[in-house]
Amino acid sequence: MIEDLLRRLGIHDGHSGVWAGSWIDQPGGELIPSINPSTGEPIASIVGASIADYDRAVDRSLDAFRRWRTVPPPHRGEIVRLIGNALREHKDDLGLLVSLEVGKVRSEGLGEVQEMIDMADFAVGLSRQLYGLTIATERPDHRMFEQWLPLGPVGIITAFNFPVAVWAWNAMIAAVCGNSMIWKPSPQAPLTSLAVQHLVNQILSKTEYDGVFNLAVGGAELGARMADDERLPLVSATGSVAMGKAIAPRIAGRLGRSLLELGGNNGIIVTPRANLDLALRAVAFAAVGTAGQRCTTLRRLIIHESIAEGFVDRLAAAYRSFPIGNPWDEGVLVGPLISEAAVAAMLRAVEAAEAQGGEVICGGRRVDRPGFFVEPTLIRARADMPIVRQETFAPILYVMTYADLDEAIALHNSVAEGLSSAIFTDDLREAERFLSAKGSDCGIANVNIGTSGAEIGGAFGGEKATGGGREAGSDSWKAYMRRQTCTVNSGSSLPLAQGVQFPIAP
Ligand code: NAD
What we know:
36% of the residues lie in helices and 21% in strands. The chain is α/β, with parallel strands linked by helices. The strands form 6 sheets. The chain has a 7-stranded mixed sheet, with helices on both faces. A 7-stranded mixed sheet has the order 14-15-16-13-12-18-19, with helices on both faces. The chain has a 3-stranded antiparallel sheet with strand order 5-6-23, with no helix packed on it. Helix 3 crosses helix 7, helix 4 (91-102) runs antiparallel to helix 7 (190-204) and helix 8 (220-228) runs parallel beside helix 9 (241-253). The protein is globular. Nicotinamide-adenine-dinucleotide binds at residues 157-162, 166, 184, 186-187, 219-220, 223-224, 238-240, 243, 246-247, 261-264, 295, 391, 393, 419, 462, 466.
């Protein structure tokens, strides 16, 4: 089955991890295994890109950029449209590969590919909407306006848990903005990146723009090289806060731009005025979906003390009933964690929570079967427990109670990260308080919707230690372009701004 899948996606053999456009280098990097987290067995090995391979790929992307930047944006959109069509055509196979390589259940694997398609559609429309402003000028016969121009090759570093959607958030937008790009995927998901790059290459190689999209598979050392690489005016990096802290100073040190999409420690407040059935479903999906491996996964439930007991009992019953298993089997809702290290990190967090006074309500153990499966876990906790302030990338939900809404919001905002947040209430005053300047300090704030599962139309990203970047929809495209303020004098005098006089004898 796996061989057939890889064959259908055109990456069965003979493909290495560095592609500068459709040109495949003979890579000199390390052998990177792709492991199936549902079995712990290798699926394939990919020869990664060495630093020298990467350097050659960036040279080719620079060369492609010089051609691509002059293409009218709606024509760039036409190329992105073809990419979107190819993704549509291969949606089932790509979705299956995502399930296979990172363990997402079937509908989430397909959803990830749909997100790429949605991004392509969005970018096609955007290619006719890269608007600048016309600005009133104080000088007669002058016109002032701003325009947005391409930046150059963009570095894209992605995390394992959205192995292809995050690439699309960046790549589709960067492309219509006139940039070329080089993608460094997570070494834990090399196959999905090869499959997507291969589809893109099939389209681009028939055009004169081969080399706009490039791939270099490797680990942190390649990411570090990208951070230092002066040929990349922008590095967009998705991953842990630790990764962001490692690369941000390097990019800043060369006065480059970074777009950081880092970790989250997301909370939901459930008030006594909430529709509790709705809240229960939302909490369950947000905390357990993707086996707790989303940046927007719910990690802290802050619930009013008057309703906590009944709600937690119902939640625990739901937790005990979740089908855990092979992610591409029908009906399974919880797949594996990504690796043995992730299982160990989860078990360490459960142990730490207990040592700090937390009480495991349900779950907390490894599932006895091959692969990296764990039980979704509920832990009664206190806000002052240090473990509650850490993002453990696993399905652990800490439950805390509150008495007063201001206290709940303060507790909610007391972590380092500021990605996604939600309140469940039917009370307009409570909802608006949560959305006010005194409310949630996150980049995403929802009412009666869980923390995960954002649509692509909005700008996605978070504040504080989450890094401040915004990607996908709204006006996130502006991060991928340079703004130029232009003033044109069509008169025959030279009036100076602010009434400054500077007479010179002709
Ligand atoms: P990770 O930080 O281990 O790796 C992410 C990427 O950064 C990988 O490509 C990796 O090779 C690279 N990298 C790691 N350390 C680096 C370094 N020192 N220098 C340069 N590159 C480096 O993260 P992960 O385990 O793949 O993904 C999970 C993390 O990503 C979680 O913290 C999650 O919250 C976060 N995440 C955030 C978002 C978001 O949009 N905010 C989306 C997905 C995942």
